[in-house]
Amino acid sequence: MKVHVNGIDDGKPIPEKFAFGVYSEENHMNFGPNRNPEVSWQDAPEGTRSFAVVMFDPDVPSEADDVNQEGKTVSRDLPRVDFFHWLLVDVPASTSRIPEGEDSDGVIPKGKDPGPGPIGVRGVNNFTQFLADNPDMAGTYGGYDGPCPPWNDELIHHYHFEVYALDVETLGLEGEFDGEAVREAMEGHILASDRVTGTYTLNPDLR
Question: Signal sequence: where (predicted)?
Answer without folding.
Answer: none
